[in-house]
User: What shape does this take?
Amino acid sequence: MKTKLLITLIFFGFFSCSTTKNVSKYTKQTLLDDNTFVVTGISSDPSYGFSPQKPIEVGSEGSGPKNERRYLNALTGPNGEAISYYRAGSCCPIKSDMALFGDKVMLDNYRVTWEGSKDTVSIYINMYDSGELMAPKGFGIKKN
Assistant: This one.
C-alpha cells in the first residue's frame, strides 16, 4: 500500500512539474541579404520595440549580436531615411527558457536616429527568443 502511494505521488509530481515550463517560441527569420533581415510590416502596437516588456525578438541561432544588426539594418526613418544606431548596453532581465543560467536573459538597448529626427529613440532587442519581425511605429522598412 505504501509503495503504491509513493509511486502515485512521484508520478503526479513528475508530470505536474512539466506543465510549468516556459515554451520558447521560434520564428525562422528570412534574410534580405547577409546583413539584413526581411521585416514583414510596421507594428500597430505603440510599445513594440520601445519597451522592455515588448522587445523585438531576433533569435540567436548562434548569431545573436549579428541578428540585432541585421534587424536594425532593415529599418529606415519614417520617410525612407537611412538610420544610424549604436548599442547603448544591456539591461532589463526578462524570463526566457533560452537562458543559459537561471531563467532570465538580458535585453540589448540600441539608440537609433536618422537625419532630420528631433530625438534619438531607444529600441529594446531580445537576441535569445525569435518572433515575427516588425518595424516599430514611426519607422519604415528597407526595400530590396
Notes: DSSP finds two helices and eight strands in the chain.
